[in-house]
């Protein structure tokens, strides 16, 4: 296969065989959401999970870096390799200007890899897109939850919380 100069552009990257436009740098809303969610999940789930922020996971030949990955616990478990699909409880992408890419492109990659629980937090519209029932064609179940709704990880269904807890207060935006 011949390489082309298109991938040398600063504007695109190759993700799971697809040419995808690179997204802008992180804004403060994005960064705040990462910290809020990480602290929330660590508080609620404690030592039952490891919450990883913007670190690689291993999905076949691809190594995406989701905003957050909730994985089986023990940091040293991943000393020799990144978490694989069977070790992942939940992947979260935070969308400030990446909603379509996160839901469609990343969603398809995660569904094909059989990630059971995938969320996209839209910090602009204050909604949580929840994707479940993965298949090679995408996710069979898709819900959009408003900020007043409650949600739980599939793997920890007894642990519920309000979508609003993942967002900065509306007045602070």
How does this model look, in words?
This protein has a 6-stranded mixed beta sheet with strand order 3-4-5-6-7-8. It is globular and about 45 Å long. It has one domain (26-172): Alpha-Beta Complex (tt1808, chain A). It starts with 11 loop residues before the first strand and ends in an 11-residue tail after the last strand. It is built from 2 helices and 10 strands. The model has no long low-confidence stretch (mean pLDDT 89). β6 (117-122) and β7 form a beta hairpin. With 173 residues, the protein is an alpha+beta fold.
Class in CATH? Alpha Beta
| Largest sheet features | 6 strands, mixed
Strand content: 25-35%
State the total count of DSSP E strands. Answer: 10
Assign the CATH superfamily: tt1808, chain A
Shape: globular
The span between the termini is 47 Å
Q: What CATH architecture do you see?
A: Alpha-Beta Complex
Enumerate how many helices there are, as a single number: 2
Number of domains: 1
Order of helices and strands: EEHEEEHEEEEE
Spans where pLDDT lies below 50 across 5 or more residues: none
Q: What fraction, in percent, of the residue positions are helical?
A: 10-25%
The rounded Rg comes to 16 Å
Category from helices, strands and their pairing: alpha+beta
CATH topology: tt1808, chain A
Mean pLDDT: 89
Q: Enumerate the strands of the largest sheet in spatial order, edge to edge or round the barrel.
A: 3-4-5-6-7-8
Task: Present the secondary structure layout.
Elements: E1 12-15, E2 18-21, H1 28-45, E3 50-53, E4 68-71, E5 88-95, H2 99-112, E6 117-122, E7 127-135, E8 138-146, E9 150-152, E10 160-162
Parallel strand pairs: 5-6
Antiparallel strand pairs: 1-2, 3-4, 4-5, 6-7, 7-8, 9-10
């Amino acid at each position: 296969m011949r390489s082309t100069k298109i991938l040398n552009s600063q504007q695109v990257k190759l993700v799971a065989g697809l040419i995808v436009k690179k997204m802008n740098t992180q804004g403060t809303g994005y960064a705040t959401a990462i910290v809020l969610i990480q602290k929330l999940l660590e508080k609620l789930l404690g030592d039952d999970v490891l919450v990883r922020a913007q670190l690689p996971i291993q999905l076949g030949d691809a190594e995406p870096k989701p905003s957050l990955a909730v994985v089986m616990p023990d940091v040293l478990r991943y000393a020799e390799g990144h978490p694989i699909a069977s070790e992942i409880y939940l992947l979260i992408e935070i969308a400030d200007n990446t909603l379509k890419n996160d839901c469609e492109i990343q969603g398809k990659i995660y569904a094909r890899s059989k990630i059971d629980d995938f969320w996209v937090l839209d910090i602009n519209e204050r909604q949580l897109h929840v994707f479940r029932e993965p298949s090679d064609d995408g996710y069979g179940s898709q819900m959009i939850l408003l900020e007043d709704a409650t949600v739980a990880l599939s793997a920890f269904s007894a642990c519920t919380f309000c979508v609003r807890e993942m967002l900065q207060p509306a007045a602070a935006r």
